[in-house]
Task: structure prediction
Amino acid sequence: MNNLFELNEKFSMPGVVIFEKRTNNIIDLLVSNRYADARICLYGGQITSFRPINKPDILWMSSNSNFEVGKAIRGGIPICFPWFGPHKTDNKKPQHGFGRLMSWDLTETAVMPNGETLIRLQLRSSEATKLFWPYNFIAEIKVIIGKMLKATLKVTNTSSGHFEYTCALHTYYNISDIEAITIDGLGGASYYKHGEPGDFKQDSSLLEIHKSVDRHYHDTEAVCIISDSSFGRKIHVDKSGSKVTTVWNPWMEGSAKMNDMPDDAYKTFVCIEAVNSFDDTVNLKPGESHETSVIIGMEE
Ligand code: TA6
Result:
């Protein structure tokens, strides 16, 4: 359903959930409760804003992002599915899969007993998804907006045979200055570098970023903490169902090459991603499901 009138009739909740149309018929769902404000774009099933009351956004959004069918939204929490990164064998297929390039159906909006808001979105296999991937599946994004933001991608195999997929909750965090933050949690973890052979290890307990970084830390389920003294906050990044954590920042040259972000955008975001890929690819038998979650919160 992608009709503003029908969405309002069926899913709006006065004072809590409303809908807003962007250009190109793309619809956003806006949540407001006693803990936070949030915005979710039905295109891509992408959370683009999570703002605890009276605080700067925890998620970063590019001011130059496309909001156009066929193009990815730059910022928030893109859902990479059913593959992470380039397709393994066919470079004509979209980077990071088709999940972020399709409209997701809203299936539920609800207020929880503690005042948190629950939102569910679904993407089911269709002729359109089978152009890219031959399997039957149901993918669901469950979002809980409270003091913390909890986002879960649940994938169920509804095919008659087994399939495997890779995925990521590719979260962009809003920071004051990339050179002023530290990331705690990955000390001692091993990582692959994007596009470079070998296995590396982070010896220091804190990660500081002073050049482009594209690292896939493996065998880690650790909580990461982004300490941002200028913003006077620590962002807690917890996850489950994922053993790979990717850290990405494209730096100056990379930002300048991407026409959907300002040239100096790299200064104000860092991606810390909950990933299933490499040695943590998901294999599902018929009827089985897997859940990949992030739990994001703030300490002052
Ligand atoms: O997750 C890191 C990464 O795969 C990088 O290699 C970088 O390309 C980034 O994602 C962004 O990808 P995108 O397709 O959104 O430009």
User: Anything to note?
Assistant: The chain has a mean pLDDT of 97. The chain has one domain: 4-298. The two ends are 40 Å apart (CA to CA). DSSP finds three helices and 23 strands in the chain.
